[in-house]
């Protein structure tokens, strides 16, 4: 998992569902602030896989068009084997599962 630019920071564009769930983070302006927000995300969502954090200049997000969130499967050769539509509504776990079964 790569944590990228925040989709709904409280100081820019806050979703009502985030307010109800208490997910209220300002848009980080430093790498340390982004690490803190990413850490909260990983802990609160109980994410068990390793998480990398995009740089504060959003280099990975720009290269992979990860905003809004997307699911990617990267093969052992480093190539993208699956890219979902924007989430969360574009996530189709069956397509990701098929890509995994195909031996990425």
Query: Count the helices. How many?
Result: 4
Tell me, rounded to a whole number, the average pLDDT: 85
Weakly predicted, low-confidence segments? none
Number of strands: 4
Biggest pleated sheet: 2 strands, parallel
The domain tally reads: 2
Fraction in beta strands:
5-15%
Helix and strand element order: EHHEHEEH
> What value does the Rg take, in angstroms?
15 Å
Key terms for this structure?
about 100 residues; alpha+beta; 2 domains; two-stranded antiparallel ribbon; 4 helices
Tell me what the structure shows.
The protein is an alpha+beta fold and 104 residues long. The protein folds into two domains: 1-66, no CATH class; 68-104. The protein is 34% helix and 11% strand. The chain contains four helices and four strands. It has helices spanning 16-21, 31-44, 59-64, 93-101, and strands at residues 2-3, 52-53, 72-74, 80-83. A two-stranded parallel ribbon has the order 1-2. A hairpin with a 5-residue loop joins strand 3 and strand 4.
């Amino acid at each position: 998992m790569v944590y990228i630019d925040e989709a709904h920071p409280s100081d820019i564009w806050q979703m009502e569902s985030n307010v109800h769930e208490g997910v209220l983070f300002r848009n980080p302006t430093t790498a340390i602030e982004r690490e803190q927000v990413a850490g909260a995300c990983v802990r609160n969502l109980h994410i068990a896989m390793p998480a990398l954090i995009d740089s504060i200049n959003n280099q990975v997000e720009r290269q992979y068009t990860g905003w809004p969130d997307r699911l990617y499967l990267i093969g052992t050769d480093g190539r993208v084997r699956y890219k979902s539509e924007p989430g969360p509504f574009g996530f189709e776990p069956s397509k990701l599962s098929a890509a995994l079964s195909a031996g990425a």
